[in-house]
Design brief:
Blueprint (H helix, E strand, L loop, with lengths): L26 H27 L3 H9 L4 H12 L1 H16 L3 H6 L9 H11 L3 H33 L2
Helix pairs in contact: 1-4, 2-3, 4-7, 6-7
Length: about 160
């Protein structure tokens, strides 16, 4: 079962009849993205579920009395009401993506074209012992997170103003 062990499936670029160009990321990167989405989906769904249940029934009833369909109620009432939650979950997911270390380290170890900034930081600082470059990579992660946090704060302020808080 599994062949003779001579096939290095993790180095192959194609999958079945699909054979991407050499400039495209490898199949490993695609699988790591799938793992990351799977890991973040549960967290996001719990938060979104709580936010949607927090939408006042009076708003939904008022929209339906005014003749809105279920789709219109969702897009015109529910989504604007949970906008702050959407921004927060998006922000947390983006920050988690920037500091993604564990999934890559556990699956590929950063080899085969799947390294992230966090993996490069780890290898540079702790494996190679290059403290200066490792610290620079850590600062780079911090600098990349700052605009995300600023955008999140601005969106939170808009959501608070919209809700009248």
């Amino acid at each position: 079962m599994g062949g003779d062990g001579e096939r290095l499936w993790y180095l192959e670029r194609g999958f079945g009849p699909f054979n991407p160009p050499d400039s495209a990321p490898g199949f490993n990167t695609f699988l790591l993205v799938v793992i990351f989405i799977w890991a973040q989906a549960g967290f996001a769904m719990v938060i979104f579920s709580a936010a949607i249940k927090g939408v006042p029934d009076s708003l939904i009833e008022a929209a339906k009395v005014d003749g809105a369909t279920n789709r219109q109620v969702f897009y015109k009432v529910t989504l604007p009401y949970i906008r702050g939650t959407i921004v927060t979950v998006t922000t947390l997911t983006m920050i988690a993506g920037l500091k993604a270390f564990d999934i890559v380290a556990a699956t590929t170890g950063g080899r085969f074209g799947t390294s992230t900034i966090a993996n490069e930081f780890y290898v540079t600082k702790f494996v190679q012992g290059r403290n200066g470059l490792g610290s620079a990579l850590a600062v780079l992660i911090f600098v990349l997170v700052i605009p995300i946090v600023i955008i999140n704060r601005q969106a939170q302020k808009r959501a608070e103003e919209m809700m009248g808080a």
